Every structure is written in C-alpha cells, then in structure tokens.
Amino acid sequence: MSDAYFSTGGGLKLKGVSGGSGVTKKKKKKTTAQVEKQQTSDQSDKSKESSDNIRESSSSSSMTDAERRFEETRRKRQEEKATKIAQKSHKERVQEFNAYLESLSEHNDIPRVGPG
Fold first, then answer.
1. Residue 100: how many CB atoms within 10 A of its CB?
2. What is the rounded distance in angstroms from the CA atom of residue 83 to the CA atom of residue 65?
3. Gap between the Cα atoms of 51 and 57, Å rounded
4. Using H for helix, E for strand and C for coil, what is the string for the chain?
5. pLDDT-based confidence at 2, cuts 50/70/90?
6. Is the pTM of this model over 0.85?
7. Rg (CA), the chain
8. Which of 1, 55, 89, 98 makes the best surface tag, with the fewest CB within 10 Å?
9. CA distances to 45, 50, 68, 78 from 61, in Å
10. In angstroms, rounded to a whole number, what is the distance separating the alpha carbons of residues 53 and 31?
11. What Å distances lie between residue 50 and 29, 54, 57, 59, 94, CA to CA?
C-alpha cells in the first residue's frame, strides 16, 4: 500500500527562477542612520526625475513638423469628442441607443415555432 504513494522529498523546482537551492537569507535590520541616508537619496532621485520630465517636454521640439501637426489635430479631436459627450445627458444617450437598436433588423431573433 505504501508503494502506491511513493513520492520524492523536497519542493518543486521552477524553470527560469534563479536561486538554485531556494533558501532565503534573513535580511539585516537597518539602522536609523542608514534609513536617513536612503530618504535623502530618494529625495534627490525625485528631483532628478522632475528635471527629466522637463527635458522630455523640451524634447518635443525635436519633433518634425508633420509630427507636431498630427499631435495637434489628435488633441483637437479629443477635445471635440469630450465636449460632444459632455453636452448630452445620460438619458439622451440611452434614448439614442434605444432608437438605434429599434432601427436594426431582427434577423438574428429566433422565430417562434409551433402554435401560438
């Protein structure tokens, strides 16, 4: 009976996962001085990211004329679409949708079979 339930010991080994043995080491606790250093480095990283954002906006000047025109027309279309949607109330949109559904042909409906 015990032969039927034979299994090897150990955990599953996953493909593509590094770490080999899968043993995790305990992390050392950080001192308050290390935490303060990390916070100051995080703040400096945030300031660098904000300066990077400014650089990205100035990199838009490297766009060609056609790219600028495309972006401008796309932005205008989005604004027009937003104003068009904002003009109608939910009730009006539902009424239009119902009218559209009524105008569709009903060839997908299942015909009645039998008496009645």
1. 9
2. 27
3. 10
4. CHHHHCCCCCCCCCCCCCCCCCCCCCCCCCCHHHHHHHHHHHHHHHHHHHHHHHHHHHHHHHCCHHHHHHHHHHHHHHHHHHHHHHHCCHHHHHHHHHHHHHHCCCCCCCCCCCCC
5. low
6. no
7. 32
8. 1
9. 25, 18, 9, 22
10. 33
11. 31, 7, 11, 14, 44
* Range 5-30 average pLDDT: 72
**Matching residue, tokens 């916070």:** 39
